[in-house]
Amino acid sequence: MSITLDQVTKRYQGSPVVNDVSLEVGEGEFFVLLGPSGSGKSTLLRAIAGLTGVDHGRVALHGNDVTHVSARHRGVGFVFQNYALFRHMTVGENIEFALRVRRMRTEDRRQRRKELLRLVALEGMDDRLPTQLSGGQQQRVAVARALAHKPEVLLLDEPFGALDAKIREELRRTIRQVQRELKITTVLVTHDQEEAFALADRIGVMNLGRLLESGRPDELYDRPATRFVATFLGAANLLLAKQTEQGIRFGATPVNARRIEKLEGGREHEVVAVLRPEEIELAPTRDNLRTNYIATGVVEELVFTGALERIRVRMTSGPSDAHIGSNSHVDGHNTAAILDVTRTQHEQRVFPVVFGQSVAIGVRRIHVLPTPLSSYTVCAAETAAAERLSQHPFLIELAGRMKTRIAKRIDPALATCQGNAQTRISGVAVIAAQVKVAKQVEWLLWNGAAEVMVLPSQAVSPQRVLIHWADDAARRSTLAVAASLLRHVPAEAVYVGILPESRGGEGQRPLGVRTLLDARSEAQAVHGLEMRTELRFGAAAEELQRQLNEQVDQMLILGISDLSQLSREFAPLFAAPAAYSMMIVYRPARESDEQAASA
Amino acid sequence: MNGTFRTPSILPGFGLTLGFSTFFLSAIVLIPLAALVTKTATMGWDDLVRVLTEPRAVASYKLSFGAALLAATLNSVFGFIIAWTLTRYEFPGRKLIDALIDMPFALPTAVSGIALTAVFAENGWIGQYLAPYGIKVAYTWIGIVVALTLIGLPFVVRSVQPALMEVQRDLEDAAETLGAARFTVFRRIILPTVAPAIATGFTMAFARAVGEYGSVIFIAGNLPMKTEITPLLIVIKLEQFDYAGAAALGFAMLVLSFVMLLSINLLQTWGRRRQVVAGR
Questions:
Q1: Nearest CB partner across the interface for B192, out of A50, A80, A88
Q2: In chain A, what residues touch B193 (CB-CB under 8 Å)?
Q3: Residues ≥6 apart with Cβ < 8 Å to B206
Q4: Is A3-227 CATH 3.40.50.300?
Q5: For B98, which of A169, A401, B163, B268 is 20 to 30 Å away at the CA?
Q6: Which of 162-191 (B) contact A at CB < 8 A?
Q7: Which candidate in B178, B193, B276 is best for mutational testing of the A interface (most A CBs within 10 A)?
Q8: Residues of the domain holding B213
């Protein structure tokens, strides 16, 4: 591996800008780090170059640990957004700078300079001053300069940021060409997905300091694992759907699309479906559709953009309440069920549509996100309390970041926690922290909720999230929930493994450590979640409570596989209204699942 | 040529502002200087040469310009270091030091002269420690240099500070990734970038030092041929009602200053051009 990052963390004023990023870039690979501004991508690049130190983790270049090696000795080439050319030197001197500080002989320097100027197509510009060149030419000089000392790794930080579209494309081609010619391992940072697609062998998408996913551009586009990647890489319609044994269902409409990836999982549950605008088909009636019908709609907006036609269709039937895309309002009532559709010239000719026309909507391909957190439902016994809780800043922040909605559910039965709910609860149930919270959690989980979030009124976005599960049966689902949540919260993830003190105490340590390491590698391999691990001894509930009370701004994710565990093992956590937020994850083990179904 | 129609400038008010500038400069700068030249012209040629080449006058030129040059040089070095500290580091009291830099601007020069004399006199706070080593500051040329350094310091700091702030960190980072050591980065990247600002600061500090009178007369001791600066000599001539002689000395200073400032400017331009050519 050319570049290896191992759990790299960089904090700025206490909060992580780069959060536990592990990454490997292969020899000669062109890797693009993609993310919005403030996602930590530039900081990560600077950490690779050695221009920024790391607070935790390891950086290795070609197998050599360079974490504590200065930028000067790492032998990387770095290209800056604003070129950073030495303005008091000519183009030639700029390029020769690295050779000059290495005391290379004059003739060799001349030779290398000529080669490099040819490489970036700037022959004969040796004696110009940088200020006499255009932006595009200056950046070419910067690339040539960065390559002068034959670095093994080339790092580019938004190199096209300051250029206009035409030059940008030209320079993009030059850089790709140079990279292919020299077969140099390259990492480029950008916020432009088009640029990433055009250049990358592999893309890594960053948000909130975390590396969310990495993979080949087409893989990431077709099968994103997270909503962020789904919506950041191109346009996407996100819809809530039900995953059943038979397949996918939008509202009452079952979709028999052949190209739906099968998800494992027993009972019916809510999932997030990604519909790319170009995978949606429009037809005059349901019978004219050649693909799977999902709904009918009305054309709301029509924009001609040359090659493609962009249409927005408001869904009038079918899963009109299912929409959670970026167009919808998060408050829950007013989900404008609008689908973005793009059509080619050919499709336009086959079925021309006009503004206000009714159409049948079909879909060629649906991708289901493997995330267990689909939507939030605020649950309360009375309207005022639900209203109050749905305005909780942390909840709004979370839902906004996850691009999902907050629904409200008023259920008087919640006050007494007796009997069954009128309808099964789907998604994450959210309740306020209070004295009787344990009973409520139990009731909600019994009535279909897969996760319950308990929010104290003063809770803020956590700095540290503790993860714990009661037994091994809950491990997998707890990790999945933790990974999904932590992609949207800039916090440190810590798995707390707790061994009972009575049984052998210290003698248990090796076993405990192995459990921790297993958990960590599973989180990393299956869910892409980087987490720390801590091993404690004692009673689980007390130990967790002690840690949670140690500092503010913490959150607990607790996994159980049996409802009785809550009152049996974790009662102390619910004894008093907590100051920290909690997410309880419940996935019944097989037998109890069947019992629940028959009950 | 279609010179009959004036091309209207995009910015209005050119005539007005030019007129005002000319008037203002004339009233404040050119007319007094012209008066100086006319007064000098009342002397005969022989008298002029005699006054200007008096040993006492020559010694005062040497002292005035020599001390001013030395002070400006010292200021360039220390002023740069101070500007560097203030722009590059964040430390408690930074704002206070930043404000202190301007003090010599505001302080009446006589006050700083008296204060320096008190401190550097043989029994003063600092002077008493220097005396055993045979170093006398007050009432020698060293004292004059100290006084001139004090009043010239803000010029260098204030002209270098913005230039240093403008040196992008990216430039240093770039040099570092290219393999340059700390000192190389400083010498090859930072210094050339701020050199013009240092030169400007130097010129201003020098010009100010040549003309300085108030602070120097207290610390200099004013011994003829030894610690007598030209401005003082002019005042002495005035007190003896030798107006023509005073004007002549003033004229000589004017010419010398002008020549020196001009040559510094030319040197700067030449340096800039040399940098451009040096790439060949």
A1: A88
A2: 87-88
A3: B68, B69, B71, B72, B152, B260, B261, B264
A4: yes
A5: B268
A6: 168, 170-171, 173-181, 184, 188-189
A7: B178
A8: 67-226
- Which chain A residues are Cβ-neighbours of B173 within 8 angstroms? 46, 51, 71, 78, 80, 84
The CA distances from residue B82 to B91, B159, B160, B195, in Å, are 13, 12, 10, 15
Fold of A376-598: Rossmann fold (3.40.50)
Query: A84–B180: do the CB atoms touch at under 8 Å?
Result: no
pLDDT in tens, A462-514: 889 999 998 888 888 899 889 888 888 888 889 998 887 765 556 667 777 88
Q: Does A74 touch chain B (CB under 8 A)?
A: yes
Domain membership flag for residue B148 = yes
**Three-state DSSP class for residue B126:** coil
**Nearest 5°: phi and psi at A49?**
-75, -20
Residue A271 has pLDDT above 50, yes or no: yes
- Record: contact A71-B177, CB cut-off 8 A: yes
Structure tokens at A519: 């958990």
Taking the C-alpha atoms of residue A121 and residue A117, their distance in angstroms, rounded to an integer, is 6
Whether pLDDT at B58 is above 50: yes
**Which chain B residues are within 8 Å of A146, Cβ to Cβ?**
177-178
Q: How is residue A318 annotated by DSSP?
A: S
Q: How many domains does chain B have?
A: 1
Worst-scoring range by mean pLDDT, A169-173, A304-308, B81-85?
Answer: A304-308
Is B261 inside a domain boundary?
no
Classify residue B78: in a domain, yes or no: yes
Buried b (16+ CB within 10 A) or exposed e, B123-162: ebeebeebeeeeebbbbbbbbbbbbbbbbbbbbbbbbbbe
Interface contact flag, B177 A86, Cβ < 8 Å = no
| 3-state SS class at A378 | strand
Domain A235-368 has CATH 2.40.50.100: yes
Q: Identify the residue whose tokens are 């109890």.
A: A592
At residue A263, the pLDDT reads 46
In which residue ranges of chain A is CATH 3.40.50.300 found? 3-227
The predicted model gives A354-376 an average pLDDT of 87
pLDDT in tens, B184-227: 999 999 888 888 889 889 999 998 898 888 888 888 888 888 88
Q: Any idea what the CATH number is for the domain that residue B187 is in?
A: 1.10.3720.10
B90 close contact with A: CB closer than 8 A: no
